[in-house]
Amino acid sequence: MNGLPERVNICECWARDGLQGEDQFIPTEKKTAIINRMVDIGFKRIEATSFAHPKLIRQFSDSLEVLKGIKRPPDVTYIAIIPNDKGLDRLLEICQKGYGVQEITAILSASEDHLLANLERTFDEAMPPLADLVKRARQAGIKVIGCIGTAFGCPLAGEVPLEKIVELTDWYMDQGATSIMLGDTTGEANPRQVREVFGHMRDRFPRVDFVAHFHDTRGMGLANTLAALQEGIVLHDSSFGGMGGQPATRRPKYHKGFAGNTCTEDMVLMMEEMGIQTGLNIEEVIDTGLMAEEFCGRHLLGHVTRSGPVRHRSFRALSLQELRIHGEIAPALLFAGKMKEELSGQSLVGYVIREALAKNWPVPEDLNIVTDGIAMKGEFERRDILVTKFKVLAIEKSKGEALLEVLSQKANGDVFLEGQIKLVFPK
Amino acid sequence: MNGLPERVNICECWARDGLQGEDQFIPTEKKTAIINRMVDIGFKRIEATSFAHPKLIRQFSDSLEVLKGIKRPPDVTYIAIIPNDKGLDRLLEICQKGYGVQEITAILSASEDHLLANLERTFDEAMPPLADLVKRARQAGIKVIGCIGTAFGCPLAGEVPLEKIVELTDWYMDQGATSIMLGDTTGEANPRQVREVFGHMRDRFPRVDFVAHFHDTRGMGLANTLAALQEGIVLHDSSFGGMGGQPATRRPKYHKGFAGNTCTEDMVLMMEEMGIQTGLNIEEVIDTGLMAEEFCGRHLLGHVTRSGPVRHRSFRALSLQELRIHGEIAPALLFAGKMKEELSGQSLVGYVIREALAKNWPVPEDLNIVTDGIAMKGEFERRDILVTKFKVLAIEKSKGEALLEVLSQKANGDVFLEGQIKLVFPK
């Protein structure tokens, strides 16, 4: 696999592309809380907001407040999407107050039909003011990502010629853009095409930084990301929980479906598993994804959020947070394939938890396990399949305690152990 | 992209691996209906059932009836999983009655811990009877897929050494196996590893046919499939709706989560979009996936099932079936980016449907559109973003009619057209 980069730089797009199609208004303090958390766990590129007209997209009516509420470490690049001159005016005003962004995204589509649907402009109408917008931003010291939407095909116009992407890249760079985003706006790309397009563009523009921006509309988000990685692309866009909408439709309802961005949690895991450095810790990424789920009030589309990281390469301690996440703990986490000796109810549960978890997650040394009403039913032998299901009944955060229901079965389905256990976590 | 095969052979595993973790018993006639539909639409390899003990997995208590109820075209290979001698006895008995399978899957794990959990045997205990099983099957003229589970890592035992996979492949081939399946049983694989493992195995065993069997537990099913394709693998396993469970846990509950096989619908689309021939038509694959959803009584995990195939490369006519599938039709399917002239309510709706659909799906020439209570609200111009939402209110199959609710909006959100339309489909 030639070309795989050693490290990548993921731009987390949840606060903009992710929320764009979200019906409910996410309160400003929740937006800033997640962005600040992104900063804390190591994201260096964060799409913070949009300067679309607040009447068009109410979600971004608080763009100024969001930018005021977020941390400002020197090594983090904030990005805002700027659809037009008025948006830039608003941004530059904010910049003077010290709440600006380091980069903006300027928008074009590879397909004129999509451009009309999205910005209500033809190429001839869109490009002169956009050239002006890029120049003004650059004069204000702001970098510009030249976004080329529908770069891999357009549901309205069909195939997009590669020459059009070349032409628009040339044009953007002439205006002073500092990087080029190829957007698979509606999820039309496939991995062969991604390699061909990025391969061609890298050869044609060896000095240009390209951003890969895929939507997971047809489940190919990660496969397309892999293809982009194989062409050496280091700048990748993603969104927590795979959230995101297709901008040219005003009522996307896409969170119900599968049209969002490639999922951050899953992307980070894939890259880290491949030995590609993201600068992120998958456990912290999952926790932040769960925050996004909490704020949105529903399960989102991340796989890793449900399944957890690859067990045998994960080294975190069991925590109250962990129990909260899983609710009903997956048997795979907790069963032991063989038992070496017969144990009493209490010690058996302790044994199962310690034995099973020790293989993957070191349990805190001083975790205290208290059993309550555990009943042994029948015998078990060394070879039994021990399917122990733990359901979290209650968590008392102040005491550091969790109450779990336990149910253990033999291979034939016989329940041989049931009751409740209490885990007392070290303070 | 060297190594991409021109065509592949997908083994559809829904009726076995897919249903293995399903709590509800799917009636025999539904199992056979889907398998027969798979045959009709071009699947050449179908995993039909399991000979696990009916008491252990009730879902397969009807394995004989399933095998009796399915079509027998000469070019279709049916596969059954055979966990032990008794299973083989039952199969051979059925074979004599003419209801056999052409291939069986014999099971081993690369990790002894998993083998113990799954089959309650050590390597030393499992291999001699398995050697016997392979020989007996071969003597009866049945081909044998040597499955190596947890080939990419085991949640119990951790990393799996490549030498172990080589050793087990050597052993299987010595016993007379006809192909080797590398199973990512619990979704631990990543694309880099997949390329390394399959690359190594292809070099080491150039004459052996390898089967790629991935689970989508962590969202990497398609990315891993891509990696296997890049190593030239032509035999791929998948399951409708991404269904499937992890066999070593008796209560998988995996359909709630994301631990199933790589999704058939999404896999077929990716391959076809890449120009790799599957011998299947994505529309028919989606329809069959929807059948599976109907039988299971819930939405499954396919993306393409919701989003449909890539629009501008799809050429099917709008149909009643299509309307039924979508319920609320995605705006992307139906909006027109620009309007050329002002139209009255009825002709506008007709225009929108014809114009928008004509770009992707040719509407039947004689489709009749009857509007009812359509009210124009305000004006619209050439440049308006026309977000027209169609909700299917009723379908009268006998009359070939569908009643749709229509709602059209301008870019600013103003509703300018709402009411009901009737589509009368040609008989």
Written description of the protein model:
The structure is a homodimer of 427-residue chains. Residues 247-258, 330-343 and 381-385 of chain A have low confidence and may be disordered. Helix content of chain A is 37%, strand content 20%. In chain A, strand 6, helix 8 and strand 7 (210-214) form a beta-alpha-beta unit. The radius of gyration of chain A is 25 Å and the shape is elongated. With 427 residues, chain A is of the alpha/beta class. The first copy, chain A, starts with 8 loop residues before the first strand and ends with a strand. Chain A has an eight-stranded parallel β-barrel with strand order 1-2-3-4-5-6-7-8, surrounded by nine helices. In chain A, strands 9-11-12-13-10 form a five-stranded antiparallel beta sheet. In chain A, helix 2 crosses helix 3 (63-69), helix 2 packs antiparallel against helix 11 (282-296) and helix 8 runs parallel beside helix 9. The first copy, chain A, has helices at 14-20, 28-41, 63-69, 85-96, 112-119, 123-139, 162-175, 191-204, 221-230, 264-273, 282-296, 304-307, 320-326, 331-334, 345-358; strands spanning 9-12, 45-50, 77-82, 103-109, 143-149, 179-184, 210-214, 235-238, 328-329, 368-376, 387-396, 401-409, 415-424. At the A-B interface, helix 5, helix 8, helix 9, helix 10 and helix 12 of A face helix 5, helix 8, helix 9, helix 10 and helix 12 of B.
